[in-house]
Amino acid sequence: MKFETKTIHAGVHPDPFTGAIMTPIYQTSTYVQRSPGDHDGYEYSRTHNPTRTQLQNNLASLENGNWGLCFGSGMGAIDTLCKVLNPGDEVIATNDLYGGSYRIFTKVYQDFGIKFHFVDLSEIENFKEKINSKTRMVWIETPTNPMLTIIDIRSIAGIAKANGILTVVDNTFCSPYLQNPLDLGADIVMHSVTKYINGHSDVVMGAIIGKDEAMLERLSFIQNSCGAVPGPFDCFLTLRGIKTLHVRMARHCENGKVIANYLRNHPKVNKVYWPGFEDHKNHLVAKSQMKDFGGMISFTLKEDSIEAAHRFLSRSKLFALAESLGGVESLCGHPSSMTHASIPREERLKSGLVDSLIRLSVGIENADDLMEDLDQALS
Ligand SMILES: *Cc1c(COP(=O)(O)O)cnc(C)c1O
Question: I need a surface site. Which of 52, 154, 220, 366 has the fewest CB within 10 A?
Answer without folding.
Answer: 366
